[in-house]
Fold each of these.
Amino acid sequence: MPLATIIGILAGSGGMIGFIPQVVHVIRTGSVGDLSLGMVWIQSVSMSLWVWYGMLVDNGVIIGFNAAKVALLTVLLGYFARDYWFRKPLKISDALSHPSKPTPYDLDDLTI
């Protein structure tokens, strides 16, 4: 295996493995409140362009790792979309009138 391929695999692995804890955290907490939507969009576009570039130069290492990162970023974008379209702010009066009813909202989502 050429040295350039080995370096590409190591670099791609590091980038991929370094991003997995963030996605796992979002899935566990169900919150993307600590993330910037702009960063996720820019990363998604950038990684998609890297996949396209990998196809143009016919490099499976570039395609594989960047496609996997696009998949992880798609998970994050899905959580952003869910928060934007499906989560409505919870009013304090609703929370107080149903104190035993569990809600998927954090206290930061409460509005007066």
Amino acid sequence: MGLIPEEIARKFGHLSLAQVHTALAYYHANRGEIDRDLESEAREAEAREELHRVVPPREIDRAVERKKQFETNPSRHTYQEAEHG
């Protein structure tokens, strides 16, 4: 963000200056892990966005619903039903 802690506390009025310093200290102590998590989440978001460009949302909804039904009662579904459902 490029802000100093006092500016962050002012911008996010629900945070005290002490909370801002605590958050910054935590970030700097765990920077590698946090950055890896953020990169992973960004890749997942890109994959979901790409999926939505390729597959219409209603088809995704149908596939998710079929998966839920299968997980709830797998014995009711054959391979063909799960595949062609």
Amino acid sequence: MLKSIGREKRSQAYTINKALNLFFTGKYRMRGYQIVVSTRKNKKYDVYKGGKYVVSFGDKRYQHYKDSTMLKHYSNLDHLDKVRLKNFRTRFGGMDRTDKTKALYWSWHYLW
């Protein structure tokens, strides 16, 4: 029982550190990848790995199902419409969603 309490506290400390890092830097790191608010025209987020640009994803002019990045910069564009979510998943479901150098991976996992 003591081990589980210690593990829980470590988990809480990790979550707090992650939130503080996000608050002070405006950046979110995920397994070597860093998601930042994009400076590119009409793009929501940019992804970097090791300081090098990988891909931009999302369009500022359109809604998405739910912004599940820790930044939540575009959560005002959430529509939470299950029918639109299903249509998006049907439309792009047959494509490769495992390649982290493609915008579809990031949109699928963090916006839809």
Amino acid sequence: MKTLLYGGTFDPPHNGHMNNLRAALALVRPDRAIVMPAGTPPHKHASATPAALRFAMCQCFKSLSPVVEVSDWEIQQGGRSYTVHTRWNGCAAKTRTARCTSASAATCC
């Protein structure tokens, strides 16, 4: 199973995010695409927008494809969010493979 993980602050999600995900879906053709709003990104201050609202706004990504789902895993972890922790310890861990491909801000594993 090929899983595309697309993370970001998404404060708010905008057309650039939608276009990036659309392109990644076309390039990678995943079986599953997980959009994951960050808890607290390590490279900037915490978002002023509550995490629950950012999570709710990310539901718009589902309109791009039936394989897209939105996860609050990083938000639920608390503290700083690092993609490597999400990928190896979180919800994407069960879909790990030896080959990973990068498409824009998305990571396929």
